C-alpha cells in the first residue's frame, strides 16, 4: 500500500524536521489527522496514574510547580507502602477539564480567559493529543508568560476520570461536540449517560458547571434527558447560560464549532449545575 | 471423571453447590445428599433436546433485547436485517476475551451441536433466612430464584422465577432484608431487582420517553458534511417505516450505578447506620457508592491497584476495613471510607515458593517465568486459637492447589503469618462460617476441589481418574491451623459425564472454572485506532 506508507513517511519527515524550525511555529493539522472515532471500551495502550496522588503534573504545567525543590511532598500513605516515587506538587490543582478536546481550540481559547486557573484538555486519540501539545508549546513560545495554564494529555475519561481528579476537584467540565454514536446499540459509548454522570458529579464540586454543546439535536436531547434524570445536576437557565463568557467561547472557538459555522449548521448548548449532595437517607 | 463444583452457598442448614448445570443440596449436619436440581431441558433426553432449547433461548433473547445483537437466522420470513458478526454478539466491546471470541464461540457451537448442556450455573447466593436460593446461569444470562422447600425430611429446590438480564451478571448479592437482588454485569451496570417479580409490573414505567415511534435518522443535512455520509442519510430516510430499536426488560428492575468496565465483584456493607455498595472492576477501580436509594452518589474510590481487581472482602467484625485482591502481586487493605491504603501484603512470593516446592512434576504448563497470580477468592473466618478468637483471611488463586490463610491482626491491620494448606487439586470455591461439624472445632470451611484438571494447571487434565477423589473437602481450624477433616459429603455418583469426554466439553469446562486470568490486559491488545 503506497498511500499510507507515503503518509507515514511524510509525517515522520515533518516530525523529525521539527527541531530545525523555530519553536514558535504552530504545528500543521494535516500531519496529525486521525480517524474521528475511538472505541472507549477498548484497553488501548493508555498511561494513567494509579490514583490522583500518583499523578505528576509538573511536566504539564512547569510554570506552576511548587518551588520546594528540597522537600518534595509525598502523600503520607503512599510513602508508607512505598508506591511510586516523589511527585512534584503544583501550587494549585487543575480545575477545568475539556473532555474530548480534539484539536484543542477551546482549551487554548480558555487559557487567556482564565489565566489563573489550570485548564486540561483530555483527548483519546494519540495523534490529536500530540498536536494539541505541540500547539500549546508553540503558543507558549510565541507569548511568553501566557498559555502556561493550558495542557493536554491522552486519556480515556469514560474509564479513568477518577484516576486523574480527586473528589470535587473540578469547577468546570466541557463536553463539546461529542461523538454522537447514532446507533442505539452504541449508546453506551456516549460520553453522557446516567451512570457516567455519577462520575462527573464525583469530580465536579457542588456549584460547578458542566458545559455541553453539539450540532446533533438527538444527542442534545439525550444529554439533557440524562443530566436531568440525575439528581446531582440541574439545568442552568437560559439567561444565566447566555451571560456565561465560556458559552460564547465554546460556540465559536471549538474546532468543531468553527466547522459547523462554515457549514451553517445548528448548535445546541446546555449547561448543568452540580447540586449539593443530599443528606444521607 | 466427576464434574467439580464451581460455586457454593449456604442456605440455612443446607450446603448448595453447583456443578455444571446441576445444583446439589447437602445437609451440613451429616453430609447427606438431599436433592439435585437440573435445568428442565436436560430431564427429557439430552441428546436431541438440548440444541433446540438453546435456539429457543436465543430467540427469546433476541426479541427481549434487541440490543444484545444476538442474531441467528431462525426466522427466514422476517425481512433480512443487517448481518452482524456472531462472534461479537456475546462479547462486550473491549472485553478481554474478544481475541479468543471466535474460538470460544466455536467451542460453544460445537458443544451445542454435540448436545452438550451449556446452561452452567456461574453464581449462587441465598437469602439469610435460608428460604431462597438464587442462581445465575451464564449462557442465557438468567437470574433464577428457587424456593428451598424442606418437608418431612426431604428437601428440594423449586424454581420460582427466571429473569434474563441484558448482559451476563458477574456478581450478585442479596440485600440484608432479603427483599432485593443486586446484580452487577459484564457491561459495568448494577441493577436492583425485587426477589419476587411483581405480577403487575407495567412495562416502561417511566423508563423511556417515547413509545414505538417511527424511525427518524438522528443526523440531518446540517450535521453531516461528506458526500458519503449524505448518501447514507438519504438511504436511511427511505427506510422510515423501521421502528427504532429499544431495549426493554419485561420485569421490574432499577439501574443503580455503572462503570465503563467489566465488573468483577460487588459487596454491600453497613457502617455507622449508613449503607454502601462497593464495586470492583477490571480497570483497577474500587468504587464506594451510597446504598439504595442514593446509589448515584459516589462517596469515593480506593485506587492503587495496577491490575484488575477480582475480589473484595470486608470482615464481619471489622466493617471499617476492606481487603481487595486481583491480578496484582499483593493483597491490599484499605480504610475504605477515606480511600486510604493501609497495607499491602505480598502473595506472589508465597505462590512462587509453593510452586517450587511442588516441583515440575506436578505443574505441567510451564512457560511460567514470571509467576502471575489471579486471586479467585478472599474469605474471612474467625477461629479459636489458644483460647483467643482470631481473624483469618483465606485466599485462593486461580490454578494454585492451596489455601493461603493469613492472620488478620487487629492492631496494624496487617495480614501476617500465612499458613499454606496444600490441596489435592485446585480450589474452585470456599465456604466459610459453616455450621460446626465436630465438637471443639472452630472456623470450619468447605473447599471445592477441581478433580478434573491436574493440580497447578488450568488446562491439563488428570490422566486417569481414580474415582476416589472428593470434590468437597472440609477443614477444621485447630490450634495448629487448618486441618482436613474426615467428615465428607455423600457426593452423587456422576451419571452423565459425557461433557468430560469431548474436547469441546473440556474447553467449555476450563472456561467455566478458570476465567480470571483473561481479565489481565495484554501488551499490544486494543491497538490504537
Automatic annotation (TrEMBL), chain A:
<dbReference type="GO" id="GO:0005634">
    <property type="term" value="C:nucleus"/>
</dbReference>
<feature type="binding site">
    <location>
        <begin position="254"/>
        <end position="256"/>
    </location>
    <ligand>
        <name>S-adenosyl-L-methionine</name>
    </ligand>
</feature>
<feature type="active site">
    <location>
        <position position="179"/>
    </location>
</feature>
<feature type="region of interest" description="Disordered">
    <location>
        <begin position="1"/>
        <end position="29"/>
    </location>
</feature>
<keyword id="KW-0694">RNA-binding</keyword>
<comment type="pathway">
    <text>tRNA modification; N(7)-methylguanine-tRNA biosynthesis.</text>
</comment>
<feature type="binding site">
    <location>
        <position position="176"/>
    </location>
    <ligand>
        <name>S-adenosyl-L-methionine</name>
    </ligand>
</feature>
<dbReference type="InterPro" id="IPR029063">
    <property type="entry name" value="SAM-dependent_MTases_sf"/>
</dbReference>
<keyword id="KW-0808">Transferase</keyword>
<keyword id="KW-0539">Nucleus</keyword>
<keyword id="KW-0820">tRNA-binding</keyword>
<feature type="binding site">
    <location>
        <position position="100"/>
    </location>
    <ligand>
        <name>S-adenosyl-L-methionine</name>
    </ligand>
</feature>
<feature type="binding site">
    <location>
        <begin position="156"/>
        <end position="157"/>
    </location>
    <ligand>
        <name>S-adenosyl-L-methionine</name>
    </ligand>
</feature>
<dbReference type="InterPro" id="IPR025763">
    <property type="entry name" value="Trm8_euk"/>
</dbReference>
<protein>
    <recommendedName>
        <fullName>tRNA (guanine-N(7)-)-methyltransferase</fullName>
        <ecNumber>2.1.1.33</ecNumber>
    </recommendedName>
</protein>
<keyword id="KW-0949">S-adenosyl-L-methionine</keyword>
<feature type="compositionally biased region" description="Basic and acidic residues">
    <location>
        <begin position="10"/>
        <end position="28"/>
    </location>
</feature>
<dbReference type="GO" id="GO:0000049">
    <property type="term" value="F:tRNA binding"/>
</dbReference>
<dbReference type="InterPro" id="IPR003358">
    <property type="entry name" value="tRNA_(Gua-N-7)_MeTrfase_Trmb"/>
</dbReference>
<comment type="similarity">
    <text>Belongs to the class I-like SAM-binding methyltransferase superfamily. TrmB family.</text>
</comment>
<dbReference type="Pfam" id="PF02390">
    <property type="entry name" value="Methyltransf_4"/>
</dbReference>
<dbReference type="GO" id="GO:0008176">
    <property type="term" value="F:tRNA (guanine(46)-N7)-methyltransferase activity"/>
</dbReference>
Automatic annotation (TrEMBL), chain B:
<keyword id="KW-0677">Repeat</keyword>
<dbReference type="GO" id="GO:0008168">
    <property type="term" value="F:methyltransferase activity"/>
</dbReference>
<dbReference type="GO" id="GO:0005634">
    <property type="term" value="C:nucleus"/>
</dbReference>
<dbReference type="InterPro" id="IPR015943">
    <property type="entry name" value="WD40/YVTN_repeat-like_dom_sf"/>
</dbReference>
<keyword id="KW-0808">Transferase</keyword>
<feature type="region of interest" description="Disordered">
    <location>
        <begin position="59"/>
        <end position="110"/>
    </location>
</feature>
<keyword id="KW-0853">WD repeat</keyword>
<comment type="pathway">
    <text>tRNA modification; N(7)-methylguanine-tRNA biosynthesis.</text>
</comment>
<comment type="similarity">
    <text>Belongs to the WD repeat TRM82 family.</text>
</comment>
<feature type="repeat" description="WD">
    <location>
        <begin position="302"/>
        <end position="344"/>
    </location>
</feature>
<dbReference type="InterPro" id="IPR036322">
    <property type="entry name" value="WD40_repeat_dom_sf"/>
</dbReference>
<dbReference type="GO" id="GO:0043527">
    <property type="term" value="C:tRNA methyltransferase complex"/>
</dbReference>
<dbReference type="GO" id="GO:0106004">
    <property type="term" value="P:tRNA (guanine-N7)-methylation"/>
</dbReference>
<keyword id="KW-0819">tRNA processing</keyword>
<keyword id="KW-0489">Methyltransferase</keyword>
<keyword id="KW-0539">Nucleus</keyword>
<feature type="compositionally biased region" description="Basic and acidic residues">
    <location>
        <begin position="87"/>
        <end position="99"/>
    </location>
</feature>
<comment type="function">
    <text>Required for the formation of N(7)-methylguanine at position 46 (m7G46) in tRNA. In the complex, it is required to stabilize and induce conformational changes of the catalytic subunit.</text>
</comment>
<dbReference type="InterPro" id="IPR028884">
    <property type="entry name" value="Trm82"/>
</dbReference>
<dbReference type="GO" id="GO:0005829">
    <property type="term" value="C:cytosol"/>
</dbReference>
<protein>
    <submittedName>
        <fullName>Related to tRNA (Guanine-N(7)-)-methyltransferase subunit trm82</fullName>
    </submittedName>
</protein>
<dbReference type="InterPro" id="IPR001680">
    <property type="entry name" value="WD40_rpt"/>
</dbReference>
